[in-house]
Amino acid sequence: MIAFIVRRLLQSLVVMLVVALLAFSMFRFIGDPVNQMVGVDTTEEVRENLRERLGLNDPVSVQFGRFVVNAAQLDFGISYQHKKEVSNLLAERAPATLELAFLSAIFALIVGVPMGVYTGLHRDSWLSKVFLTVSLVGISLPTFLIGILMIFIFSVWLGWLPSFGRGEVVDLGFWSTGLLTVSGWQAAIMPSITLGLFQMTLIMRLVRAEMLEVLRTDYVKFARARGLPNRAVHFGHALKNTLVPVITITGLQLGSIIAFAIITETVFQWPGMGLMFLQAIQTVDIPIMAAYLILIAFIFVVINLIVDILYYVVDPRLRIDRATAAGH
Amino acid sequence: MSVVSSLPGRRGADMLRRAWDSDIAYSFRQSKVTMVAAAVTLVYFVFALFAPWIAPHDPYDLSSVSLMDSFMPPVWEEGGDPRFLLGSDDQGRGILSTIIYGSRISLAVGFASVIFAAVLGVTLGLIAGYAGGAVDAFIMRVAEVQLSFPAILIALLIDGVARGVLGNEAQGDIAYFVIILSIGLSFWVQYARTVRGSCMVEKNKEYVQAARVIGVRPALVVFRHVLPNVLGPVLVIATITLALAIITEATLSFLGVGVPPTSPSLGTMIRIGNDFLFSGEWWITIFPGVALAVLVLAVNLLGDWLRDALNPKLR
């Protein structure tokens, strides 16, 4: 057990180091960092001074070491574009993204699970067929298209909901939340549905498949034979046993939600980390790109690590199937 | 027709009949949804291949495009112009023509990146499966790490890095290679994993051992003997990843890091139109959006059907 965790930890560490190396080489070898920081008419002497001060004349290995140490202390340098500390920028933007991700996960769960249960229990009803068709469309349509269609219907056509931004936010000092104002909630509806739709269809299909499986098992038959009401059988016995894979998949998908937030945030101009990352790509703002890359990799590695360890604790056999569950 | 040439003709007819009676054709004929999907996909292919002859005008030919024609609504709306069946965009390009040319780009980029991903993935999978040992462990470890990140993120990153290396002005033709490269590199894993699995099964079979015994070089054994026997599932993955590749290209283009706006793909058109959604010119976004959705849905349905039809467990 300990050996497994240690090995897994080491592997995660290697992955993080590789990602850091990638980020570092982006930082160091794409363009000249000095050129990005000074004006065109700066003298060679000033440039050389800056170069020395930034440590760009040191051996590459020393620079990489410094980069890793700084990154571990959340110091990713200064954005070329915004001229501010990248870590501060990310911290400013993180609440928006995390709130969005959280709301979409909740949406996916509270809509996806009942739909899955219903389609599992009533396989041939017309409503199930409608749900399944909708889920196929939900999987097929690109996220940004769903967002645009929703904006077209609910903002342009009906004029019910705002199409961009977070609405009014309340600053709690360390965290700015949109969940305390009416306009904040209104602004969050469409982005979180757009972002959660794919996860919702995934959860729905998963719950349906699991329900169909579980309803055939002996203990469900036995529960029926005991004369328990349908409700108790369906929810107490069947649904409870489908929830373990649902929770793990939701956990694994959390990383994907944060990554897909890039698209949703762009469509709805949601001021989160994803939007900043995309703007950084367009303007080749390497420090932000590097920091975001490391951050996302860290989130993924931590989630995968936790899931792996949990699987190991719960059932060693499942470890083999893990990779397929994580895939898209 | 002489007697000599009628012989291959008969054989061709025979083959057609046998193809018609095969399991796959049967399951195809049984599924109406699949037939519709196949027909829709075929229409897109024909439009993409013969775009210059089908489209009302060439949207890339600047001499035929006039700013005077910009923001024309579709024909059935007030102020519509019969030259622009589905209206025109901000540059005066007809939406119908841009959709036809745009599907061409979307399909071309989709196919190219799927082929690139397949070649890369199949090769690496074969090497991993046949060589085993440290090589196998290394390739599969990389695959596993990549699989835990969403493809769109990887494509975005590769695109961003390429942009940084080439400089922002490196648009035009290079942009296509960059986007094909980034989509291809983010989808090779599925191929590699599947092919590695079947390769490990195949390499212990007698025909492979026989080939090795008579002294065929390992590279030749892998590519001439093992490869043809592991290609079945690759076709299914290719169909499914084609839909994903089209979506990814559209998404990248929508985000503004895809193909250049001078020759717009469907995603670029949606992005351009998105700016005008609020000023009432909805047709610039909605028509390309519907075109993209229908294309992706059709390819997805075909992929689903192909997977089920080729899966012996479901027969």
Automatic annotation (TrEMBL), chain A:
<feature type="transmembrane region" description="Helical">
    <location>
        <begin position="130"/>
        <end position="160"/>
    </location>
</feature>
<feature type="transmembrane region" description="Helical">
    <location>
        <begin position="288"/>
        <end position="314"/>
    </location>
</feature>
<dbReference type="Pfam" id="PF19300">
    <property type="entry name" value="BPD_transp_1_N"/>
</dbReference>
<keyword id="KW-0813">Transport</keyword>
<feature type="transmembrane region" description="Helical">
    <location>
        <begin position="100"/>
        <end position="118"/>
    </location>
</feature>
<dbReference type="InterPro" id="IPR035906">
    <property type="entry name" value="MetI-like_sf"/>
</dbReference>
<keyword id="KW-1133">Transmembrane helix</keyword>
<dbReference type="InterPro" id="IPR000515">
    <property type="entry name" value="MetI-like"/>
</dbReference>
<feature type="transmembrane region" description="Helical">
    <location>
        <begin position="243"/>
        <end position="268"/>
    </location>
</feature>
<dbReference type="InterPro" id="IPR045621">
    <property type="entry name" value="BPD_transp_1_N"/>
</dbReference>
<feature type="domain" description="ABC transmembrane type-1">
    <location>
        <begin position="94"/>
        <end position="311"/>
    </location>
</feature>
<keyword id="KW-1003">Cell membrane</keyword>
<comment type="similarity">
    <text>Belongs to the binding-protein-dependent transport system permease family.</text>
</comment>
<keyword id="KW-0812">Transmembrane</keyword>
<keyword id="KW-0472">Membrane</keyword>
<protein>
    <submittedName>
        <fullName>ABC transporter permease</fullName>
    </submittedName>
</protein>
<dbReference type="GO" id="GO:0055085">
    <property type="term" value="P:transmembrane transport"/>
</dbReference>
<feature type="transmembrane region" description="Helical">
    <location>
        <begin position="172"/>
        <end position="198"/>
    </location>
</feature>
<dbReference type="GO" id="GO:0005886">
    <property type="term" value="C:plasma membrane"/>
</dbReference>
<feature type="transmembrane region" description="Helical">
    <location>
        <begin position="12"/>
        <end position="30"/>
    </location>
</feature>
<dbReference type="Pfam" id="PF00528">
    <property type="entry name" value="BPD_transp_1"/>
</dbReference>
From TrEMBL, chain B:
<feature type="transmembrane region" description="Helical">
    <location>
        <begin position="33"/>
        <end position="55"/>
    </location>
</feature>
<dbReference type="InterPro" id="IPR000515">
    <property type="entry name" value="MetI-like"/>
</dbReference>
<keyword id="KW-0472">Membrane</keyword>
<dbReference type="GO" id="GO:0055085">
    <property type="term" value="P:transmembrane transport"/>
</dbReference>
<feature type="transmembrane region" description="Helical">
    <location>
        <begin position="142"/>
        <end position="162"/>
    </location>
</feature>
<comment type="similarity">
    <text>Belongs to the binding-protein-dependent transport system permease family.</text>
</comment>
<keyword id="KW-0812">Transmembrane</keyword>
<feature type="transmembrane region" description="Helical">
    <location>
        <begin position="105"/>
        <end position="130"/>
    </location>
</feature>
<dbReference type="Pfam" id="PF00528">
    <property type="entry name" value="BPD_transp_1"/>
</dbReference>
<feature type="transmembrane region" description="Helical">
    <location>
        <begin position="282"/>
        <end position="306"/>
    </location>
</feature>
<dbReference type="InterPro" id="IPR025966">
    <property type="entry name" value="OppC_N"/>
</dbReference>
<protein>
    <submittedName>
        <fullName>ABC transporter permease</fullName>
    </submittedName>
</protein>
<dbReference type="InterPro" id="IPR050366">
    <property type="entry name" value="BP-dependent_transpt_permease"/>
</dbReference>
<dbReference type="Pfam" id="PF12911">
    <property type="entry name" value="OppC_N"/>
</dbReference>
<keyword id="KW-0813">Transport</keyword>
<dbReference type="InterPro" id="IPR035906">
    <property type="entry name" value="MetI-like_sf"/>
</dbReference>
<dbReference type="GO" id="GO:0005886">
    <property type="term" value="C:plasma membrane"/>
</dbReference>
<feature type="transmembrane region" description="Helical">
    <location>
        <begin position="234"/>
        <end position="259"/>
    </location>
</feature>
<keyword id="KW-1003">Cell membrane</keyword>
<feature type="transmembrane region" description="Helical">
    <location>
        <begin position="174"/>
        <end position="191"/>
    </location>
</feature>
<keyword id="KW-1133">Transmembrane helix</keyword>
<feature type="domain" description="ABC transmembrane type-1">
    <location>
        <begin position="103"/>
        <end position="303"/>
    </location>
</feature>
